[in-house]
Design brief:
The protein is 22% helix and 42% strand. The chain is α+β, with helices and mostly antiparallel strands and 155 residues long. Residues 12-152 form the Activator of Hsp90 ATPase homologue 1/2-like C-terminal domain.
């Protein structure tokens, strides 16, 4: 598993606002699920060494079979590194019987001031081979678009 997927977007909000949305339970539930999904955080511990467990449910399960069940993806995420206003590093493990989804994927959310906004670059490394690259990158881009909609009015 040496594949890397990435996406980036400039968001019209300061780094402090964006960073806050990365570490707030209700915020994550609102913006992290990509289009066609909703999310629920079951466990929350926002500190280095902590993490969260999220259940992502497909709104149209027939079109998008899940990794954990027909309609869901369950992922346990650990916070490996938190650098305020700059970076959030997550280690994600999917609950799945299919070995093509096994392993730990690292998601790095890098924030950089860009004028009055923030350039957010998400890099996923060690992506499990069962995750289609184009679909994954579209999902990351969708989450970034949701993040932009969520925070742009809050800055």
């Amino acid at each position: 598993m040496d594949r890397t997927d990435c996406a980036s977007r400039v968001i019209a909000a300061p780094p402090a606002t964006v960073y806050g949305a990365l570490l707030d339970r209700e915020s994550l539930e609102a913006w992290l699920p990509p289009d066609g999904m909703r999310g629920q955080v079951e466990r929350w511990d926002p500190r280095p060494g902590g993490g969260f467990r999220m259940v992502l449910t497909y709104l149209e399960a027939a079109d998008s079979p899940g990794k954990t069940s027909d309609a869901t993806d369950v992922v346990d995420v650990g916070f490996a590194d938190l650098v305020p206003l700059e970076r959030v590093v997550q280690r994600a493990v999917f609950e799945a019987d299919d070995p093509s989804y096994a392993g730990t994927m690292t998601m790095t959310w890098h924030l950089a001031a860009a004028g009055d906004g923030t350039e957010v670059t998400v890099t996923a490394t060690d992506v499990p081979p069962g995750i289609d690259q184009a679909v994954h990158e579209a999902g990351i881009a969708s989450s970034l678009a949701n993040l932009a909609l969520y925070v742009e009015g809050a800055g």
